[in-house]
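Sequence of Putative hydroxylase (Streptomyces vietnamensis).
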Amino acid sequence: MPTQQLTARQTSSRIDSAAVVVAAAGVAKIAAELARDAERDRRLAPEVVQSMLDAGFARHFVPRRHGGGSGTFEEIVRAVSVVGEGCTSAAWAASLTASLGRMAAYLPEEGQRRIWAGGPDALIVGALMPLGRARREEGGWRIGGTWPYVSVVDYADWALVCAMTTEDRPTARFFAVPRGDWRTEDTWSSVGMRGTGSNTLSVEGVFVPDELTFTRDAIAGGVAEGGDAPCHRVPLKAVNGLCFAAPVLGAARAALAAWREGTAPRHTSASGGLDSAAAVVLGRAAGEADAAALLLEAAARAADSGEVTAFDVARSGRDCALAAELATSAVDRLFASAGTRAHQDAAPLQRHWRDAHTASGHVVLAFSAAAESYARELHPPQPAN
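Predicted 3D structure, token representation.
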């Protein structure tokens, strides 16, 4: 499948980061209209990705000195969930694009200037698992490796990939690689989230200068060089779940809308109200979606406060995983009550069901691990006597 480079807006003007929430509705509309094309092509249409850039997702967390918004997590959670009401794959892409823009702010200043030399809308993709190897050379590193599941890679300008160094004490580092220095393999074939185009990226013997690399410990601890806003000073684990759970919330809301349009009319009484069984389904599913939204927005506000403790990190992981479970449960409930019509290829509800399960299956949203981390903060292991 050919790759395609989009035209980013060439500007260094500062933006109102809250505008992305308003602009998200336009992205959702375009993404919904082209959702079936995305399913067929296993990647988003260029128009959808361009609308995402125009709305300000890529620049949302980019430092203001580079023309970005240094925005908040609450804004991005709301914006991503709105996009998810149109297409969960588009919401996933929007969320990751924003997240990777934040991660690039951990590069040395010279590297940041290079990434955003053409403006703050550079589309950056990434792979967090250290599946590559990096050998030290004068002035930089020689890297190679293969990373699966790199969403929206066909449209990327840059990729942030993680590799282990080959030093006596190996460390995990991120390396920024420009478009043209990697090879893409068409490997994405999934039951859900088909439009994310999460293909495999390979790099072989590419030299990366020192200004385009940083340690994984830096982003894990929330230590960004020249970080000018709270969004650049928050540990990754405090916000990583938000990135993946917000699209699932969008899927739940989309499922509610599809159910009300396609299923509710078949369960109305002569007076126009819903029958009792349908009312219970709607009430519980809507409540689950609303509860998921409250959990995510609370976690986002905690991250935006600039005062994130170890307990906040653990609670955020718990709440993001629980929110994804609640949102997926809402979709399950609606889909199970919708009858045979909802199983047709053309029925939006079956797409929302597949997408919610695929997205919530991400390892970051595993509730068991999140619950254990939370419990350890409340009841830390005691040293043996």
